[in-house]
Amino acid sequence: MQTTPSKSSKQNSIVYFIGFTAALAGLLFGLDIGVISGALEFIQKDFSVSDQTLEWIVSALLWGAVFGTLVSGILSKQLGRKKTMLLSALIFALGSLYCSMSRSANELIAARFLLGIAVGVASFTAPLYLSEISPQRIRGSMIAMYQLMITIGIMLAYFSNMFFGTTVIINQQIGGHWRLMLGVIIFPALLMFAGMLFLPESPRWLFLRGFQKRGVDVFRKMLLPEEEITSEVAEIKKNLLQKQNGFHLLLKNSHFRRAIFLGMILQFIQQLTGINVILYYAPRIFKIAGFASTSGQMWGTIVIGITNMLATFIAIAFVDKLGRKPIMYAGFTVMGASMLTVGTLFNMNLEQSPVLGYYAITALLLFMVGFAMSAGPIIWILCSEIFPLGGRDLGITFSTSANWISNAIIGGTFLTMLAKLGSGPTFLLYGGLQVLFVLFFLLFVPETKGVSLESIERNLLSGEPLRNIGR
Ligand code: BGC
Predict the structure, then answer these.
(1) Is the same domain home to 322 and 407?
(2) pTM for the full model?
(3) Ligand 1 center–CA 218 separation, angstroms
(4) Parent domain of 424
(5) CB 37 within 8 A of CB 280
(6) Rounded to an integer, what distance in angstroms lies between the CA atom of residue 431 and that of residue 424?
(7) 172 falls within a domain
């Protein structure tokens, strides 16, 4: 017999519906990151373009994301979080359509830049909205859900690439349909747009704009108990007393500048692991490892996507138990060892002993585990914790832009590095960097597990070395 759902389970469904819809932004972010790897080979054939042009097609989205991140602080403040996310869903849809209809490589570059703006705006606004609307007790898992959606997006894009790349028959052509790969993303974009129409505005933003009653109504519609509403409202009011004066802090406060330095370096490090080299160019890497057929390369890429998604659960399970730093040490050691192994194997003659290619792929998968359990989620978590409240928006704008800028540089130089240095040395270089990063963590990165944001802020501003601000 069916029982009537209790108020609390109804309340959870509303909260999770909100979380899921907003996290669709993460899914789109992942889809757009993942889709390009499977499309590149066919785009190159269709437009007869060089590897350098392909690098531009990859990195145009990332430069668009830099621009999107820079403007999203202003947009989400002026328009509100909800309208900004609706706008980004619309640009996602238009950008996907434009990509699928591009008549030349230059048009595709322009379309990918447009799409990148949506990615940048979404990557700033969605986590902000999620952290502002979710009740405190589930705030962590909401942000983790967003991270997970990125990896699910990448994985789904790989499956869809496989489908349109090797099986769908149109006009007697089997596979190779890169326009459909890029165009199909219009559907999740429209889904996000439609879902967002039903979501409430962020209560914190409503309070910021002086619409206190509407802010409280949002919590009521979410069916939160009155005492929880009272404590959420008290927390918001307390936070709002702290004015966002990031630019003032930037000029006047060297301790704030230290936090900005740390946030930006952490994001550079995340990208210099080489994660996106693998995600954007996986089929090419499989080719180097000796997988000649397109379908073999695409299956390999799918396994990479699945590994990335599954290993994210390791971080979700342990980040609040073991702490951030032990997981980072473990993850970076695995990544360093794996990249050095891949580099060493690529320096050998893979054609003569194909088994070495399998070893290289195994090492790549281990690299994925190392990244997804550590740098993937934890760098974003750290960057949300280290800035003093008064400069948080500006700090996150800086660190997120650093992420996209380094992402663009890496995405835009990999094929040139392969051509100039060779595949072995390129991977050895990435492997060697991980050793330096472990040293950086030892010297400069704080452990923030279980420490309140207030104590981190107090320690930072009183001049404690960065490594100790989590004490
Ligand atoms: C990174 C992205 C990366 C993704 C892979 C994110 O944390 O910022 O650059 O593509 O993880 O899962």
Answers:
(1) yes
(2) 0.86
(3) 32
(4) 245-471
(5) yes
(6) 11
(7) yes
